[in-house]
Amino acid sequence: QVQLVESGEGLVQPGGALGLSCTASGLNYVCSSYDIYWVRQAPGKERERVASLFSRGGNENYLDSVKGRFTVARDNVKNFAYLRMSNLKPEDTAVYYCNVWKDNGIGYASSDYWGQGTQVTIPS
Q1: Where are the beta strands (DSSP E) in 1-124?
Q2: pLDDT at res. 10
Q3: CA-CA distances (angstroms) from residue 42 to 23, 47, 70, 92, 119?
Q4: 123, 13 in Cβ contact below 8 A?
Q5: Is the dihedral angle over the CA atoms 86, 124, 99, 30 positive or is it negative?
Q6: pLDDT value at position 27?
Q7: Of 38, 48, 68, 79, which has the maximum CB count within 10 A?
Q8: What is the C-alpha to C-alpha distance for residues 91 and 100, in angstroms, rounded to an integer?
Q9: Is 40 buried (19+), middle (13-18) or exposed (0-12) by CB count in 10 A?
């Protein structure tokens, strides 16, 4: 059974920094085969993807509002994914989810796994 566990929950003052980690277990393929996404959901708002790290080419993509402040990374040996956040703002307050995804080819369902989420709070 696949399990993703996030850690790094915290309350940080505006302008501060915080790092989130996501550990994966039970994956059918090596960690490097999966795209990694960090998704957040603020109270009363839709989920939004803040950072992406693609398995092919290692390209990264960020939500405009976090560009230059957030960095996504992976450690394929440890089955870890990271989200490093700096210059945090009150609007970054949300539950952050780790999501890994893999295309298994035509005719096969993709693999799509989510962690339980971790709370990040930046007081105004």
Answers
A1: 3-7, 10-11, 18-25, 35-41, 48-53, 60-62, 70-75, 80-85, 94-102, 111-114, 118-121
A2: 87
A3: 23, 7, 17, 8, 10
A4: yes
A5: positive
A6: 86
A7: 38
A8: 24
A9: buried
Q: Which pLDDT score is estimated for 41?
A: 98
Write down the pLDDT at residue 112.
Answer: 94
Name 112's bridge partners: 101
* Collapsed DSSP state (helix, strand, coil) of residue 33: helix
- Cα 45 to Cα 13, 82, 87, distances in angstroms: 22, 24, 22
* Cα pseudo-dihedral 10, 11, 17, 18, rounded to 10: 10
Q: Which residues touch 46 (CB under 8 Å, ≥6 apart)? A: none
Give me the pLDDT at residue 108, please: 85
Rounded to whole angstroms, how far apart are CA atoms 47 and 49? 7
Q: Which residues of 109-123 are buried (b: 16+ CB within 10 A; e: fewer)?
A: eebebebebbebebe
